């Protein structure tokens, strides 16, 4: 699995987080937070049997995508959100004695009912397949493609703004293999 990490975490951050939230995190997940502290995971899918799910990002502590920000909306007390797909569904990790470290998919259309997908964060990472971000097309290249497809009316100021945001996000992204 490839990740564009949010930065390194610290033992102090993790310990403060555990105290604040009255939980003890599983060791491999703590190591992930120390090394990556979450990150964006573009072009990443999770494969479980015939099922495929997108993994948009994994949360960190005190980051732009913070675990605690998402805990506010998360109803489960036996799990903690650790990431999301592009449709508002969560990936969560078990934090109680009977499910500690297990990974769950929580579908918003099913009331965020926890569906176990992996026994550990290591297994979860092994189920995720990523592609490297290649060439990021310029606005001019995108305009040419839209015009060639005879959809020139779809080139609006809002479209161009969206393209620019995507270019800014992905042009200099540094993806690295998650290794715990």
Overview of this protein structure:
By secondary structure, the protein is α+β, with helices and mostly antiparallel strands. The chain has two domains: 2-130, SMI1/KNR4-like, CATH 3.40.1580; 139-172. The chain has helices at 11-21, 27-35, 67-71, 121-127, 139-148, 157-170, and strands at residues 2-5, 39-40, 44-48, 51-54, 57-58, 79-84, 90-94, 103-107, 113-118, 128-130, 176-177. The strands form two sheets. Strands 9-8-7-6-5-2-1-11 form an eight-stranded antiparallel β-sheet. A three-stranded antiparallel β-sheet has the order 4-3-10. It starts with a strand and ends with a strand. The model has no long low-confidence stretch (mean pLDDT 92). It holds the Pfam family SMI1_KNR4.
Give a nutshell description of this structure:
It contains 6 helices and 11 strands. It has about 180 residues and is α+β, with helices and mostly antiparallel strands.
- Name the beta content range: 15-25%
Strand order of the largest sheet: 9-8-7-6-5-2-1-11
Number of beta strands: 11
Poorly predicted regions are none
Indicate the overall shape. elongated
Instruction: Output mean pLDDT.
Output: 92
Distance between the termini: 11 Å
- What name does CATH use for the topology of the largest domain? SMI1/KNR4-like
CATH architecture of the largest domain: 3-Layer(aba) Sandwich
- CATH top-level class of the largest domain: Alpha Beta
Give the SSE order as H and E letters: EHHEEEEHEEEEHEHHE
CATH superfamily of the largest domain: SMI1/KNR4-like
- The value of Rg in angstroms is 18 Å
Number of domains: 2
Domain Knr4/Smi1-like: 11-126
Protein name: SMI1/KNR4 family protein
Organism: Eubacterium album
InterPro entries: Knr4/Smi1-like_dom, Knr4/Smi1-like_sf
């Amino acid at each position: 699995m490839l990740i564009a990490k949010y930065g390194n975490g610290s033992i102090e951050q993790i310990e403060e987080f555990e105290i604040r939230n009255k939980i003890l995190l599983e060791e491999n997940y703590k190591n992930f937070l120390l090394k990556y502290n979450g990150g964006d995971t573009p072009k990443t899918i999770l494969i479980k049997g015939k099922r495929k799910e997108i993994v948009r990002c994994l949360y960190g502590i005190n980051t732009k995508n913070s675990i605690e920000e998402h805990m506010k909306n998360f109803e489960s007390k036996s799990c903690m959100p650790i990431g999301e797909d592009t449709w508002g569904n969560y990936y969560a990790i078990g934090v109680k004695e009977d499910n500690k470290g297990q990974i769950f998919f929580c579908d918003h259309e099913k009331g965020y009912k926890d569906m176990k997908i992996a026994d550990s964060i290591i297994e979860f990472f092994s189920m995720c397949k990523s592609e490297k971000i290649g060439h990021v097309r310029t606005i001019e290249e995108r305009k040419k493609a839209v015009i060639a497809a005879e959809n020139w009316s779809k080139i609006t100021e809002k479209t161009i703004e969206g393209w620019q945001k995507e270019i800014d996000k992905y042009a200099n992204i540094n993806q690295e293999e998650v290794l715990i």
